[in-house]
Specification:
There is one protein chain. With 517 residues, the protein is an alpha/beta fold. It has 3 domains: 35-56 and 191-311, Rossmann fold (3-Layer(aba) Sandwich), CATH 3.40.50; 63-187, no CATH class; 319-512, no CATH class. The chain has 15 helices and 12 strands. The chain is globular.
């Protein structure tokens, strides 16, 4: 049966206006108790009344978010202008009509907001902040070069290749300092975004634990919705059922809505929830529950109108691995040259301690299961392995590892070397020889690999590292399962950017001396 054709309104007759904010509008139970969440730390309504259906959402940015964003913008502009002014004095001697300086400043001023380098979504939120800042400065350099070609100012090369990189050398550390200040406040329970979690009790509990152990992320789960809608999880109250989620979010003013695994969720319900949250400042985050992969291997694309999450295979060969190999060997050789006086001083101190050998050699398992000899400064008494059997009952190590916080076999010099990881400097020779990398999984012992499960053997797909995620995440304080998980995460999500982040964090971990014994 054909559908009847509806008559089109006559000329001059206005079409009815549809308010999209009210489609669909979830009902609000005014009599229900208010949820414990707050919109960025502030009450939703001064009178304590929940918003009625169709009312505009009341979730706004907290005052600390506004202040932090203003601070970032001001510091970026001041630093960029100072670098450009100094460059103008050095390059052009502050000519009255220095269009190079004005053009560079204009390019940076345009590129930063266009590249979303000041977006609240990225400020203080992981490596994305640095990626957007890098894209903005690359865009600025291209604009300066294009402007020089367009206006015939071919002498812009110093501004493209020296001034813009100089601005980057100032902005990146400046952003890092601001983030450290923000992270310290977050560890004290300040500057946190209120989060509503929705899913099964198990996945929500895991999310709550992670947000508490990694407070620098800036999330605080304040309420939960589950299929049962009652009780509490890890001390966080369950305020309702999953089908009531959008109502509680609008009333509670949560900044993040974290969707974790549960059979309730399907594409239709997730889409409906996204519609219900439109117009609010709540960000919906969906956890991929099928596999724990992140980083550059994940890409979202649309095929036949369907959003698909593409997972590319991990790269163990190719151009990026070749770059890593070159950087490893050249970087290790450079570090050996720089630290040669330190190496000599440590060797003299170890030898003078008990006249024993300076270098301790140990068999470790490398890439593809091949054994190699790893070098370290000796930190224990001679024949320490013969005393180990008497200390088995005092073992504090994780899994098959033997560790003691106060090992009587460690010499005085060795204790100092271990605290600051100076005993591992000879491993730079292993890196130059191509048996290890600067960054990678922890080099395992042969007896460890004999007990590996099939998944854990994926650690052997890449070279072991002088440092890695285990080094910057707790070192000897990690459990065996956690150290395995971190190594597998590195293998699966490896990138050059991740290596740079780990190297940077290693210096902080070594200086702090945490988890080293």
């Amino acid at each position: 049966m054909e559908e009847p054709v509806r008559p089109w309104p006559a000329d001059g007759v206005a079409l009815p206006r549809v308010d999209l904010r009210a489609v669909p509008a979830p009902p609000v139970d005014v009599a229900a108790p208010s949820s414990p969440g707050r919109g960025a730390g502030e009450p939703l309504d001064p009178a304590g009344v929940c918003p009625a259906e169709g009312d505009p959402p009341k979730t706004h940015a907290a005052e600390w978010e506004k202040r932090y964003r203003r601070t970032v913008i001001a510091s970026d502009l001041v630093a960029a202008c100072l670098v450009i002014a100094l460059s103008a004095f050095v390059i052009d001697r502050l000519a009255p009509h220095d269009m190079h300086a004005f053009g560079t400043a204009f390019a940076i001023l345009c590129a930063l907001p266009v590249s979303r380098a000041w977006s609240p979504r990225v400020l203080g939120e992981g490596p994305e902040e640095y990626r957007t800042l890098g894209r903005a400065l690359i865009t600025a350099a291209v604009l300066v070069a294009f402007g020089g070609l367009l206006f015939g100012a071919l002498e812009v090369q110093p501004w493209v290749f020296f001034v813009v990189p100089a601005v980057a050398l100032v902005l990146f550390p400046q952003r890092y300092v601001l983030r450290q200040i923000l992270h310290r406040r977050r560890r004290r329970g300040l500057c946190l975004l209120p989060v509503m979690a929705a899913g099964s009790a198990e996945t929500v509990a895991d999310l709550i634990k992670r947000t508490r152990t990694e407070a620098h992320v800036g999330w605080r789960v304040e309420a939960v919705c589950t299929s049962t809608g009652t009780g509490e999880i890890e001390g966080v109250p369950v305020v309702g059922r999953l089908e009531e989620l959008s109502r509680h979010v609008r009333r509670g003013g949560y900044r993040v809505v974290a969707i974790t695994g549960d059979q309730y969720w399907n594409p239709e319900r997730l889409q409906r929830l996204a519609w219900d949250l439109e117009g609010t400042s709540s960000e919906m985050v969906v956890a991929p529950v099928l596999m724990e992969v992140a980083g550059p291997r994940l890409n979202v694309s649309g095929v036949l109108g369907m959003p698909l999450l593409r997972v590319t295979a991990p790269a163990f060969t190719g151009g990026r691995r070749l770059v890593k190999e070159v950087v490893d060997r050249c970087g290790a050789a450079l570090l050996l040259a720089l630290f040669s006086p330190v190496l000599l001083a440590i060797a003299v101190a170890v030898k003078a301690g008990d006249r024993g050998p300076v270098i301790y050699r140990q068999r470790r398992i490398g890439k593809d299961g091949e054994a190699f000899t790893m070098l370290k400064f000796r930190t224990m008494v001679v024949n320490a392995h013969l005393i180990r059997n008497d200390l088995e009952t005092a073992n504090e190590g994780a899994g098959p590892l033997f560790k003691m916080k106060k090992d009587p076999r460690v010499t005085k010099v060795g204790g100092l070397l271990r605290r600051y990881s100076l005993d591992e400097l000879p491993q730079l020779f292993n890196v130059v020889a191509g048996r290890m990398s600067l960054v990678g999984p922890r080099p395992p012992l042969p007896e460890e690999t004999a007990t590996y499960a099939p998944a854990a053997r994926r650690r052997l797909l890449v070279k072991p590292g002088l440092t890695g995620l285990w080094q910057v995440s707790g070192r000897s304080d990690l459990s065996w399962d956690e150290s395995i998980r971190l190594d597998l995460r590195y293998v699966e999500d490896w990138s050059l950017a991740l290596d740079l982040v780990i190297l940077w964090k290693t210096f902080r971990a070594v200086l702090a001396g945490q988890g080293a014994y």
